[in-house]
Amino acid sequence: MEATIPLLRTAATLGRRLLAALICVAAAGLPALAAEAAAAGEMSSLRKVVEELEPIVILLVVVAIVIGRLPRVQLGHSDAFRRRRVLNWLPLGLTYAFLYMGRYNLTVSKNALGSLMPKEDFGTIFFWGTLVYGVSFVINGPLTDRIGGRRTIMISAIGAALMNILMGVTVWAILTGRYAPSHLVVTFSILYALNMYFQSFGAVSIVKVNASWFHVSERGVFGAIFGVLISLGVYFAYDGGRIIVEAAQGSVAGIEGAVAPFWWVFYIPAGLLLFFALLDFFFVRDTPGDAGQRDFDTADASSGDTGPRLGVFEVARRMFTNPVIVTIAAIEFCSGFLRNAIMQWYIIFAKETHIMESFVPHHWGMLLCCAGILGGTIAGIISDRVFQSRRGPVAGMLYAGMLAGAAVLIGILTTPVVGWLMVFMSLCIIGVHGMLSGTASMDFGGRRNVGVAVGIIDGLVYLGTAAQAIIYGQVLPKGEAGQDPANWWMWPVIMVPVAGVGLLLALRIWNAKPQPRAKAGAH
């Protein structure tokens, strides 16, 4: 342990310097905003940003050390293969993280726009977006299986970037009086739905590519990586978005009648997505063979399947008649409902009840990121090392934590403990999501048909998300009533039965493991 401490300190120092450089480069790309912020004395906030990121950097280093020191599963992977695999999944994974930034910036814009986007309108916009996401797997899952995850992640990044640019233009037009605010709901519902169509390629693409690069016995660790990527995306969306909004407000401080350029909360994710689409083009490959490495048997449900490629409807029929796939999809419907019941509505709860400046809501993105990293890492390691690559036991334990948390929340809504309970529940639900959508989908779908499997599973996640958006948008307190935390009692009450159903379903797949068509060979 003594030898590890200097490494952590060095990593934190390097992380601070790197992050400071990246932030300065980003600021340089926004000359007008950066110059105005500097004139107002806002550039000193860069130090605060770097300090806020330090816990994430340290936690990532600790996770890397823990995973690196675990005994390796002996599959015959060469060091060259492992290095090339990192070079493959890292840009792919960061693209997925920035897709989150271009997805949940809607919540950030809702709080920034205030009365221009009330809860009912936000719920409607988010409902249509998530509904489109949930059903688009009918097209995008089979398409990803057909043309490969490398192509579809680039389609996802470029399409989502264009939709974010158009949403930014809409906000600019409304705030500068060039477009009627009454058109916001319809316009944003259309643009956000199109954004979510392109976003829906993200999870399918990352799992499709990595299904050929990770053996079943390694996929718990990949589930941990998947959880880390989701968590980084959540940080970029919430705290990154908040930083952009604060910079926009600071840029017009003291200027009477000036309009804060909130549209940058859409433009910046768009620019990052276009940049990472370019990296994906140069570095990401669908299989080890495409990257000059040896392909190998991953021992999943496709192992030993050397027959002709099945048609879309036959694959879909097999997936929908596979009781394990159907059960995982049903669990993930509950996960989608609960994940966004926490991530989306807690920050709105905090704003409306005037607790935004307390520690948890003010650092919501950072804490969600840390919770997700821990949840994903713990779930992945336990799944592979304790439960022999079974995913059901970990999902069951984390859902038990979700159910307990939702029950406790009912009684503590008016206390400061709410925020920390939300962090714990986020740890549980991100751990479940990474384990099932990111890992079990590969195991039981198999690398040949994983696109359809992920489409079904992740589609149900967002149907659950759509359900909570429309339900909570209608039942949560409105106007002045929303300022009293006690009036938010329906929020946790609705979570309890959903968490209970998720727990019961997770127990049904406690012993489930993929059954290869032939015994896997060594690499």
Number of helical segments with 4 or more residues: 18
Output the structural class.
mainly alpha
Distance between the termini: 34 Å
Order of helices and strands: HHHHHHHHHHHHHHHHHH
Q: Please state the average pLDDT score.
A: 78
Total discrete domains: 2
Q: Please report the total strand number as a whole number.
A: 0
Task: Detail the poorly predicted runs.
Answer: 1-43, 519-523
CATH class of the largest domain: Mainly Alpha
Give your account of this protein's structure.
This protein has 523 residues and is an all-alpha fold. It folds into two domains: 1-70; 80-508, MFS general substrate transporter like domains (Growth Hormone, Chain: A, Up-down Bundle), CATH 1.20.1250. The chain has 18 helices and no strands. Helix 15 packs antiparallel against helix 16 (392-411). The longest helix is centred in the C-terminal third of the chain and has 58 residues, at 418-475.
